[in-house]
Amino acid sequence: MPALFLGGSLAGCSPSGSSVTSVAKGDEGKFAGLDDQILKWRKEIIATDPLCQSKVADQKCDSFEVACKAERTVTPDEQAKGVIGHVVAMVAYNGFDPKFQHAQSGTQVAEFTKTKDGWTRAKHAPVYMQSCGDM
Q: Does the CA dihedral 34-39-42-47 come out positive or negative?
């Protein structure tokens, strides 16, 4: 697994009833700064996830990968409030379960929202890893 994939375009498939949109390579300006926010999120996961708390070298969290990221629709009401974009992302990583004393994979999902003031992040319900579409 790569250390942390941040390149490429935002992509997503749209399961029935979902508002996931693929993003073309030329649309990165709208998403400028998102990669930095994902790196910041990774540091917070390492600092707070129980799977990442071991101090033993071979029991630390590693193999972080952005499993999916997809743009979500911004409503007219949100646009009126200054929202520029929404992106849902899932990261997958390997950690160590202290209770059962074995390696374990972990995932977290977040929704990033961009306004003129920058990006904010909020927890998001689980999504399909292949598309970042809502379950």
A: negative
* Contacts (Cβ under 8 Å, ≥6 apart) of 53: 98
Q: pTM for the full model?
A: 0.76
CB-based contacts of 52, cutoff 8 Å, min separation 6: 45, 46, 60, 61, 93, 95
In a 10 Å sphere around its CB, with 0-12 CB exposed, 13-18 middle and 19+ buried, how is residue 5 labelled?
middle
Domain ranges, ordered by start, for the chain: 20-123
pLDDT in tens, 38-96: 999 999 999 999 999 888 877 889 999 999 999 999 999 999 999 999 999 999 999 99
Cα dihedral angle (123, 11, 92, 58), rounded to 10 degrees? -130
CA pair distance 34, 24, nearest whole angstrom: 15
What's at 112, amino acid-wise?
Answer: F
| CA distances (Å), origin 115, targets 13, 24, 60, 95 | 24, 20, 35, 33
